[in-house]
């Protein structure tokens, strides 16, 4: 297992800023201004979410009828109120922060996050000392979840504990670092939030079942970073159910985020322990301007890598990690969703070096319809699984999406000229060779 780069001391130092990032903010929770690279949904009511689910179901049916082993992409913000996703993300981040606090108290502040192992005995004593729970009660926690059997608990075990604790009636209290007082972890969650969670999970379950029935793989798109902890968590829960025997549900990781590698490696390790197929779509990211605007307004560190080169490095680092996982376990799959020729070349080279054959269909490629055909067609002709991303829905919703893509890809005309030059070059080659139509 490769070590993760985010150490506890670094994370604890930025706790206040991270909490600002996941704080509910009406101006951004239902906000889609300054987003040029993706379609965003504006919440109106639960009935509208049901309508979105029906559209996604029709999209799955269309994918099944148009290609073998096809994909359909969905957005969780279309299935739930975005403000709820922000609130849920905040809860997840607070729970992680509590783990880091316990790790720091046990002298592990310099370790990579996945290498932190809390000693169960010391953890139980700390929980009792803080007044969170008695030692007898915490022992029951760990016994019921079969955790800490080796005397230690890591971050993935800690997250399992969160699942069980949030299902009990007694509120889970954790310390507030600023006030020193205990506060309910789920203080912002009421009956309405519980209903929203159940409805959203039901909608995702309906979509996943339809995808499995139709032989379609379901990609859950990544969205703004302040929604993403909740979206990823819900996607992983769906993967646990549907990815037991094959890769049906694909999570999406945005490599322009500084924490992308940590997110990928953590979920890969979870899939190893639990025995399900890890499957991902890797993208660079589509919400940069909005992310930076929100960070500046709310006073937390910009979550985006500082340069395009750093994003490229992150993309290749995450991709290489998943390719290594495919080589060693064959229970992982990746869609390389990129228009970058260097990234495609990097993938092909590493597949060859690692002995991953295109026929295994563990690695596939995706580009937007009408873009980068000089990448798509040669890949398909060489036997690689390659897909075109086609916007699906009412015309009045699809056209704004396409205009945003045109804005995002300002170099589109230069690429179009390159495609034209390559096609003309190929026509001349075939004319000279006397095999124009072969």
TrEMBL record:
Keywords: Acetylation, FAD, Flavoprotein, Mitochondrion, Oxidoreductase, Proline metabolism, Transit peptide
GO BP terms: L-proline catabolic process to L-glutamate
Disordered: annotated span: 1-21
Record's GO cellular component terms: mitochondrial matrix
Compartment(s) of residence: Mitochondrion matrix
Alphabetized Pfam families for the sequence: Pro_dh
Biased composition (Basic and acidic residues): 7-21
Listed pathway(s): Amino-acid degradation; L-proline degradation into L-glutamate; L-glutamate from L-proline: step 1/2
InterPro entries named in the record: FAD-linked_oxidoreductase-like, Proline_DH_dom, Proline_oxidase
Gene Ontology molecular function: any one: FAD binding
Needed cofactors: FAD
SUPFAM superfamilies named among the record's database cross-references: FAD-linked oxidoreductase
This enzyme's EC code(s): 1.5.5.2
Domain Proline dehydrogenase residues, every copy: 46-415
Catalysed reactions, semicolon-separated: L-proline + a quinone = (S)-1-pyrroline-5-carboxylate + a quinol + H(+)
Major location (coarse): mitochondrion
Function: Converts proline to delta-1-pyrroline-5-carboxylate.
Family to which the UniProt record says this protein belongs: Belongs to the proline oxidase family.
PANTHER family with a match to the protein in the record: PROLINE DEHYDROGENASE 1, MITOCHONDRIAL, PROLINE OXIDASE
Protein name (Swiss-Prot/TrEMBL): Proline dehydrogenase
């Amino acid at each position: 297992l490769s070590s993760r780069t985010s150490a506890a001391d670094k994370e604890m130092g930025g706790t206040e800023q991270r909490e600002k990032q996941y704080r509910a903010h009406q101006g951004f929770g239902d906000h889609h201004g300054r987003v040029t690279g993706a379609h965003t949904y504006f919440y109106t009511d639960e009935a509208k979410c049901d309508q979105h689910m029906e559209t996604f179901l029709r999209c799955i049916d269309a994918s099944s009828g148009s290609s073998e082993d096809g994909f359909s992409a969905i957005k969780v913000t279309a299935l739930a109120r975005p403000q709820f996703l922000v609130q849920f993300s905040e809860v997840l981040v607070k729970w992680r922060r509590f783990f880091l606090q316990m790790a720091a108290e046990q002298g592990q502040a310099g370790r990579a996050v996945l290498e932190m192992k809390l000693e169960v005995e010391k953890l139980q004593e700390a929980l009792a000392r803080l007044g969170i729970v008695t030692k007898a009660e915490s022992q029951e926690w760990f016994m019921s979840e079969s955790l800490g059997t080796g005397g230690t608990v890591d971050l993935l075990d800690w997250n399992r504990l969160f699942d069980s604790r949030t299902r009990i009636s007694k509120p889970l209290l954790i310390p507030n670092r600023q006030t020193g007082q205990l506060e309910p972890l789920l203080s912002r969650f009421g009956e309405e939030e519980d209903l929203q969670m159940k409805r959203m999970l039901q909608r995702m379950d309906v979509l996943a079942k339809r995808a499995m029935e139709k032989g379609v793989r379901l990609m859950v798109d990544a969205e703004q970073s302040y929604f993403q902890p909740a979206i990823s968590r819900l996607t992983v829960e769906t993967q646990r159910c549907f990815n037991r025997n094959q890769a049906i549900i694909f999570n999406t990781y945005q490599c322009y985020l500084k924490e992308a590698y940590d997110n990928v490696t953590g979920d890969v390790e979870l899939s190893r322990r639990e025995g399900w197929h890890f499957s991902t779509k890797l993208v660079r990211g589509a919400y940069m301007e909005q992310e930076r605007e929100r960070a500046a307004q709310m006073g937390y560190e910009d979550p985006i890598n500082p340069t395009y080169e750093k994003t490229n490095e992150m993309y290749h680092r995450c991709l290489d990690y998943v390719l290594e996982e495919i080589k060693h376990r064959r229970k992982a799959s990746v869609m390389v969703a990129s228009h970058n020729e260097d990234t495609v070349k990097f993938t092909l080279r590493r597949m060859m070096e690692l002995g991953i054959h295109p026929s295994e269909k563990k690695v596939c490629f995706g580009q937007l319809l009408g873009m980068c055909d000089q990448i798509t067609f040669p890949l398909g002709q060489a036997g690689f699984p390659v897909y075109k991303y086609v916007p699906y829905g009412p015309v009045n919703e699809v056209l704004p999406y396409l205009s945003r893509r045109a804005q995002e890809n300002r170099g589109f005309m230069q690429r179009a000229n390159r495609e034209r030059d390559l096609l003309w070059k190929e026509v001349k080659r075939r004319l000279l060779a006397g095999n124009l139509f072969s």
